[in-house]
Specification:
This protein has one domain. The protein is 44% helix and 0% strand. The chain is built from seven helices and no strands. Helix 2 packs across helix 7 and helix 3 packs across helix 6.
Length: 151
């Protein structure tokens, strides 16, 4: 088993450790060990095909990368997850497209570079291009997640 991460580990650190796990059982165990709302939210964003991002996330997303050292001056995906609904179909319909994009850019600019890239990957439904995590593993780790009928 891999070295235990600190309680305040970033989602990117958790996903890296899960991705490095050798067996499906280990991956499931790690996901359950580090379970939190932000972790489940980004996994749902990535793996639930019924969830549709309302932002243009293909290609380069134009934001200024936060180059401050990790642990300083950053927000965290696992703290920001309550605002994710703003960026998906069925979320806040009163928000204009321009305001939605501004909020998205502000979110990305507040995160570490790695977490910003992680969130963009999930919005593209492309987490697997960087991390060895499958929907099957996520579904077994979190059987309470109801897939589909979002948005």
């Amino acid at each position: 088993m891999a070295k235990k991460l600190p309680n305040d580990a970033l989602l990117t650190e958790i996903f890296q450790q899960v991705s490095s796990a050798k067996t499906k059982k280990e991956k499931i165990s790690l996901l359950q060990q580090y379970n939190n709302g932000g972790l489940r939210s980004v996994l749902i964003i990535n793996f639930d095909e019924s969830l549709e991002c309302l932002l243009p996330v293909d290609g380069d997303v134009p934001f200024k990368r936060n180059e401050a050292p990790i642990g300083t001056e950053h927000s965290r995906l696992d703290h920001e997850f309550r605002k994710f609904y703003l960026y998906f179909k069925g979320g806040d319909t009163s928000l204009s497209g321009m305001k939605r994009e501004q909020n998205f850019i502000q979110l990305l600019e507040g995160l570490t570079e790695q977490e910003a890239d992680l969130f963009i990957l999930c919005c593209r439904k492309d987490l697997q291009s960087k991390y060895r995590i499958t929907k099957q593993v996520v579904a077994e780790a979190f059987p309470q997640i109801e897939w589909g009928n979002r948005g």
